């Protein structure tokens, strides 16, 4: 009798809904594509779980590594303190090929913990219904989660997830809603003791690329090397006496009108004289030429 009591306590401590009998035979989703299932999921509703008591902003992220492994990270935020707790592990597909059934092995816990999950149905883009059941003799415990791609999903998405629960005849009476409000507000960085060290490291990295002035990075071009001609002698700075030099005499201001009048006087218009006329002597008439010729004596 005491063994049965211990099994019941263990089932209750594991935080699901304990029941007598064997686990129901729920078939997981067929033709399940794990690659499409990768990425972040937000927990909207779930069965009551002791491990998630007093928590909010629960998210799960599935990541594929280049080596072909699939890692899972559960992030849980404490409702009172705001501290985040991470549960990390890796996934191993179990069951028949193409079934949405896998085993999660958590390695970040003090004791290694393996848990089997089944994806009852999902459209990969909006919702997913996850279910789990573990039996200890005549006692078994069930867990169920409604996951969505959006932190605050629309009603239509939730109706599709509820339809999956109704198809498998899973009661919704034991579901509790996960608080996903105010999850994007980050804590004050000044309260973090590592904030100053990280800030100094960032400033050192920024200085390697430029100069920081008033928390702004300004890139500086590399200095240009000036070539010095050996033949040119460097300029020697002239020594100046400490006695102030007399100021130059003030010159009278030149009024623009006076300057214009003087320039107008200097540049007097030149009067062009008419070109002299050249008189061409007329040719003497033939009669006058004949008169001037001497008369020849008669023979």
TrEMBL record:
<feature type="region of interest" description="Disordered">
    <location>
        <begin position="218"/>
        <end position="299"/>
    </location>
</feature>
<feature type="domain" description="Lipocalin/cytosolic fatty-acid binding">
    <location>
        <begin position="39"/>
        <end position="181"/>
    </location>
</feature>
<feature type="compositionally biased region" description="Basic and acidic residues">
    <location>
        <begin position="218"/>
        <end position="238"/>
    </location>
</feature>
<dbReference type="InterPro" id="IPR000566">
    <property type="entry name" value="Lipocln_cytosolic_FA-bd_dom"/>
</dbReference>
<comment type="similarity">
    <text>Belongs to the calycin superfamily. Lipocalin family.</text>
</comment>
<dbReference type="InterPro" id="IPR003057">
    <property type="entry name" value="Invtbrt_color"/>
</dbReference>
<dbReference type="Pfam" id="PF00061">
    <property type="entry name" value="Lipocalin"/>
</dbReference>
<dbReference type="InterPro" id="IPR022272">
    <property type="entry name" value="Lipocalin_CS"/>
</dbReference>
<feature type="signal peptide">
    <location>
        <begin position="1"/>
        <end position="15"/>
    </location>
</feature>
<protein>
    <recommendedName>
        <fullName>Lipocalin/cytosolic fatty-acid binding domain-containing protein</fullName>
    </recommendedName>
</protein>
<feature type="compositionally biased region" description="Basic and acidic residues">
    <location>
        <begin position="262"/>
        <end position="299"/>
    </location>
</feature>
<keyword id="KW-0732">Signal</keyword>
<keyword id="KW-1015">Disulfide bond</keyword>
<dbReference type="InterPro" id="IPR012674">
    <property type="entry name" value="Calycin"/>
</dbReference>
């Amino acid at each position: 009798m005491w063994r049965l009591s211990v099994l019941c306590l263990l089932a209750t401590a594991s935080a699901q809904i304990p029941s007598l009998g064997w686990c129901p035979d729920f078939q997981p989703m067929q033709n399940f594509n794990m690659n499409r299932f990768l990425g972040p999921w937000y927990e909207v509703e779930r069965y009551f779980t002791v491990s998630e008591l007093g928590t909010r902003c629960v998210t799960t992220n599935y990541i594929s590594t280049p080596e072909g492994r699939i890692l899972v990270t559960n992030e849980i935020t404490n409702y009172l303190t705001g501290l985040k707790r991470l549960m990390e592990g890796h996934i191993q597909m179990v069951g028949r090929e193409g079934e949405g059934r896998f085993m999660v092995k958590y390695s970040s816990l003090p004791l290694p913990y393996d848990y089997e999950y089944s994806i009852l149905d999902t459209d990969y883009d909006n919702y997913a219904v996850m279910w789990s059941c573990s039996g200890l003799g005549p006692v078994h415990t069930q867990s169920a989660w409604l996951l969505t791609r959006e932190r605050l999903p629309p009603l239509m998405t939730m109706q599709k997830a509820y339809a999956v629960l109704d198809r498998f005849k899973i009661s919704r009476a034991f579901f509790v809603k996960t608080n996903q409000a105010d999850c994007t507000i980050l804590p004050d960085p000044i309260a973090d003791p590592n904030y100053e060290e990280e800030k100094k490291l960032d400033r050192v990295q920024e200085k390697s690329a430029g100069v920081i002035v008033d928390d702004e990075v300004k890139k500086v071009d590399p200095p240009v090397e000036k070539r010095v001609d050996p033949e040119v002698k460097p300029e020697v700075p002239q020594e100046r006496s400490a006695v102030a030099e007399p100021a130059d005499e003030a010159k009278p201001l030149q009024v623009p009108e006076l300057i214009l009048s003087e320039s107008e006087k200097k540049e007097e218009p030149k009067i062009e004289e008419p070109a002299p006329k050249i008189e061409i002597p007329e040719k003497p008439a033939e009669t006058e030429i004949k008169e001037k010729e001497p008369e020849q004596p008669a023979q």
